[in-house]
Design brief:
The chain is of the alpha+beta class. Helix content is 44%, strand content 16%. A hairpin with a 2-residue loop joins β1 and β2.
Length: 90
């Protein structure tokens, strides 16, 4: 079971028809607003509304923020956050 709220799940239903490329563009745009993600670009791929993030972040906080930005984009059903934090053993 996902820890996403009912409101988020309902939002997904309303946006089911958004193409994956449009979702990816929205996530990339959200990430580029933040200067740290301009300095350390994050790869964004989308398959059936599921966003996968890859790249490097300077801290666990930045990794978490990237995931939060991605989940807020229109049409996102779920986020797989594979961003690496150097030195982080988690």
């Amino acid at each position: 079971m996902s820890d996403r709220s009912e409101a988020e799940r309902n939002r997904d239903t309303a946006h089911e028809r958004i193409p994956d490329e449009a979702i990816a563009k929205g996530v990339r745009s959200a990430l580029l607003i933040k200067i740290q993600f301009q300095m350390h670009p994050i790869e964004v791929t989308v398959k059936d509304g599921v966003v996968t993030l890859r790249g490097k972040a300077e801290s666990a906080t930045q990794r978490q923020e990237a995931g939060q930005l991605a989940v807020m984009a229109a049409g996102v059903r779920d986020v797989v956050n594979l961003i690496d934090v150097p030195g982080d053993l988690a």
